[in-house]
Amino acid sequence: MHDMHDMQEEDRMMLDSVDRFCVTEIDPVVHDLEAKDEYPFEIVEKIKEMGLFGCIISEEYGGLGLSTEIYSQIIERIARSWMSVSGIVNSHLIMASAVQRAGTEEQKAEFLPRFATGELRGGIGLTEPDCGTDLQAIRTTAKLDGNHYVVNGTKTWITNSKYGNCIALLVKTDPKADPRHRGMSLLIAEKGEGFNVTRKLEKLGYRGIDTCELEFKDYRVPADRLIGGKEGKGLQQILSGLELGRINVASRGVGVAQAALDEATKYSQNRKTFGKPICEHQAIQLQLGEMATRTEAARLLTRSAARAYDLGKRCDMEAGMAKYFATEAALENSIAAMRIHGGYGYSKEYNVERLYRDAPLLTIGEGTNELQRMIIAKHQIERNPA
Q1: Which of 31, 50, 69, 136 has a 20 to 30 Å separation from 194 between CA atoms?
Q2: Model-level pTM?
Q3: CATH architecture group of domain 122-232
Q4: CATH architecture label of 236-383
């Protein structure tokens, strides 16, 4: 029992240090960096120092070995200050977790320690200009040539690709395979000749983070960088990573929903109309009551999905529910906060307009919310046959 108590103590200290980091390092600079769409270099260096790029990498490889449940709370806290920063950590850890769960012993020993320190930092290369949700339709190919794969194709919406230096790259090693997923593989792709960042995408929100388009022209990857060492396993390897991604995006949703609730709660006590603070008007109370409940429900769904993931259970239904509900909560709360702020909510001076621009991405990214509901329904039917 003693161990468990120590563990909780360590987790609490970790979360406290993340809170301090957000208040001292992110809050004072977010407004200016976001307005300029400027990359937060200093924040990223501090994240390296804190070891957060290794937070779910196991301790034997130099990581912090945190549970998904604690990791999800770290992401919630960071997103509460600035959603973009949580993306810098998350995309990197999906790449790391693909290697940790599916890599060969040699790959784990070579790459995980470098991922944990942030020396190698990056994300996942899945989406292409003509395919997002339907990953089996990707066209990027990797042909074996001696002891290298030669990669050609284009990827887009790739986070951490301008300032990062490595991605887990989804390719077709056998474009003719039937079913299509049998021809898909995942490569550990470090930047090099033929790996070109062609442009940074301009976005409505989620600014400051390097989301780019990539072009591969006869780019060569050593064959021993094929994750797991067997072709045709790429889709399964990335799908388990996407469960983690969904839990992460749900955590971001909780963070943004909480930030909107915080801003609305504070403003409603300071702003007066008709002789009293607006929080005493019933119309505002109804909004705040709903926002608070929605945030807490999103948080509990997200915790429950994170626990299921930690237990090693299939949790695509739970992760889908958390992702769907928490990101809708972020969107609804951001709009409610803007309305409570009245004209000020529309002004660039206050944080609420940023929350309003950041929230929609969460409902689209990591599998659209339409897709999540279809996944939830499919599992609902499977688990309850008539």
Answers
A1: 136
A2: 0.95
A3: Beta Barrel (2.40)
A4: Up-down Bundle (1.20)
